Structure formats: structure tokens, C-alpha cells
From TrEMBL:
InterPro entries: Ferritin-like, Ferritin-like_SF, Ubq_synth_Coq7
SUPFAM superfamilies in the record: Ferritin-like
Keyword Membrane carried by entry: yes
Gene: Coq7
Biological or metabolic pathway of the protein: Cofactor biosynthesis; ubiquinone biosynthesis
Name of the protein this chain belongs to: COQ7 protein
Pfam (any one): COQ7
Organism: Pomatostomus ruficeps (Chestnut-crowned babbler)
Amino acid sequence: PAGGASLRLCSTRVAQEGINKPVIDRIIRVDHAGEYGANRIYAGQMAVLGRSSVGPIIQQMWNQEKDHLKKFNELMVAYRVRPTVLLPFWNVAGFVLGAGSALLGKKGAMACTVAVEESISEHYNNQIRTLIEEDPEKYKELLQVIKQFRDDEQEHHDIGLEHDAEATPAYSVLKTAIQLGCKAAIFLSERI
């Protein structure tokens, strides 16, 4: 800079004083992984059903998931959180789950959506409770983000139900299996 003035770059980091860093790291890491996985699920569904009558509905939900992932990418930087080392696995597993459920047809894809989004809504509700117990004012921005994304996920869940998810053969078995996978993914992504 001219005249010897110092150049100060803007920081995208959040002030770290007073935050419960282990809790925030765990929340942001797992939510980033979850949104990444959701993007891969919808990518798999679109690969199979993108040109079908349900393609625009899947695309609409995927677009919201893309926005969610973008926000968690920003939060990862702002809070200086490392991603889970399992992202390469979630990349493949998410796409396979999405494409596999879509191979069962529209109802199968929607059954997958209901199972995943119900699990994620519950997960986000648990995080909201944790942050409120910690300090709702200190985590106000993060709470707003999680509440909005929880509402979006609940909307996706409801869309799945509106599009005959429950009419999928062996719906309860499929839903239970997917939700067990979600619980395992959440557990692992919080920690690894």
C-alpha cells in the first residue's frame, strides 16, 4: 500500500472466545458431512430419475441441499473446523443410496427421502436443544441456520410422504435400514 500503510485483510473467522469449541466443532463437522451426503443422495436420484415426472421435485430439494452445503462450507472456515475424514466414503455411499433407492422408482426415492430427512430433522432438533442449553444468545446465528435447515428438511420429508413414499414395497424395512445408516453416519462423522 502507498505511504507505508499496513494492509489488513478481512477475516471470515468467528470470534472463538467463550464458545464451547468441542461442541461447535462436532456440530459443524457432522452437519457439513450430512449436507454433503444429502447432496450425493440427490445426485444419485437425479442420475436415475432426473428426466422422469418426479425429476423437478428432486431437483428442487437438491437445490436447497446445495445451499445448505454452501453455508456449512462457510461455517467450517469461519469456525476453523476440519471436515470429517469420511467425506470420500460419504461421497460414494450417498450416491449409491440415492441411485439405489431411485432404481426402485419414484416411491423408492421418496421413501429414502422420508427416512433420511426424518433422521436429519431429529438430529437438528437435538443440536438446537444442545445450543440452547449452552447459551442461546452466544450461538444465535448458528441456531438460526440450524432451525432454518431443520425446517427445510422437514419440508422434504413431507414432500416424500405426499409422493407416495409409504407405498414402497417393504417401506418400513427400507426406512429402518436407511435410518440405522443415518445414525451410524452421524455418530462417525461427529468423531472422525
